[in-house]
Design a protein that fits this description.
- This protein has 273 residues and is of the alpha+beta class.
- Strand 3 and strand 4 form a beta hairpin.
- Helix 1 runs antiparallel to helix 2.
- The protein is rod-shaped.
- It contains eight helices and seven strands, in the order ααββαααβββαββαα.
- The protein has a five-stranded antiparallel β-sheet with strand order 2-1-5-4-3, sandwiched between helices. A two-stranded antiparallel ribbon has the order 6-7.
- It folds into three domains: 76 residues; 106 residues, PAS domain (Beta-Lactamase), CATH 3.30.450; 52 residues, no CATH class.
- The longest helix is centred in the N-terminal third of the chain and has 37 residues.
């Protein structure tokens, strides 16, 4: 994954394939010539035909192998470029040696811009410190990275939350060479989760306020004011309005209305006298 198949350079790849095939053919011819000369066999006649035939056969076989290699590499590169995830590779020091084009959509960088940088170079200092400590533990035991959430800085300065997964890879001698993995943008998902948590918190607070009203309330036996949690005496209507969604409309009940009318008539009578 350290190299990228360039579609616009396909002609150069073909020329390279021709050169390699010619080299293989020449090597085959030289080896067969040395073989026959070492045994004192004349190179004319059937032996020359044999050398030419095997050289051509070597060219054909190598061209088929190289063509399949280029086709497979192109197919793999097309798959990488079309996936919605960012595919990357870092060396044993944690520096990017490969970044797929998807990084443009996720973080706004060109793949070449992040090469030789570390993932921590794309984070805020506090986030870099947190992830570096976690990564150090994982790398020390050559373990996998599984859906690790980390906040990265987009090139325009905004935060992008990525979910990182990766596996260590080793060379033919078994020596640790780095990690290969994928990053997925989960910024939208995290926002939905945060909004959900906020709504749950608000709901719990609302329920807590309702429970406060269902408990025992200290109320004055004379003026009927209610003592709040802070020790202040408040009117009943004011207290209940603060601790619930209840609104009050004031009026007179029939008993109080009759009493008020009697008092009014009494007031008028005394005024006449």
């Amino acid at each position: 994954m350290g190299t990228t198949f360039k579609k616009e350079r396909f002609g150069a790849y073909v020329r390279l394939m021709v050169i390699l095939c010619a080299a293989i053919s020449a090597m085959t011819a030289v080896e067969l010539t040395i073989f026959f000369l070492g045994r004192g066999v004349s190179l004319w006649g059937p032996h020359l035909i044999f050398i030419i035939f095997n050289s051509l056969l070597a060219v054909l076989a190598s061209s088929v192998v190289l063509r399949r290699f280029l086709e497979d590499k192109k197919r793999f590169q097309d798959l990488i470029e079309r996936t919605s995830d960012w595919i990357w590779e870092v060396d044993e020091e944690g520096r990017y040696t490969y970044a797929s084009p998807r990084i443009r959509d996720l973080l706004g960088y060109e793949p070449e811009e992040v090469l030789h940088k570390t993932p921590f170079d794309l984070m805020r200092p506090e986030e870099a410190k947190r992830t570096r400590e976690i990564f150090a533990t994982v790398i020390a035991r050559r373990g996998p990275l599984n859906s690790f959430e980390n906040a990265n800085l987009h090139k325009d300065g905004r935060l992008v939350v990525l979910e990182t997964s990766g596996l260590p890879f080793f060379d033919s001698a078994g020596k640790f060479r780095g990690y290969r993995g994928i990053d997925r943008d989960i910024t939208g998902r995290k926002k939905i989760e945060q909004d959900r948590e906020r709504l749950i918190t608000e709901l719990k607070e609302s329920i807590a306020n309702v429970k406060t009203l269902s408990g025992m309330l200290p109320i004055c036996a004379d003026c009927k004011k209610i003592r709040s949690d802070k020790g202040y005496w408040e009117e009943v209507a004011s207290y209940i309005t603060k601790h619930s969604d209840v609104l009050f409309s004031h009026g007179l009940c029939p008993v109080c209305a009759e009493k008020a009318m009697k008092e009014l008539e009494e007031f008028k009578r005394k005024s006449v006298l």
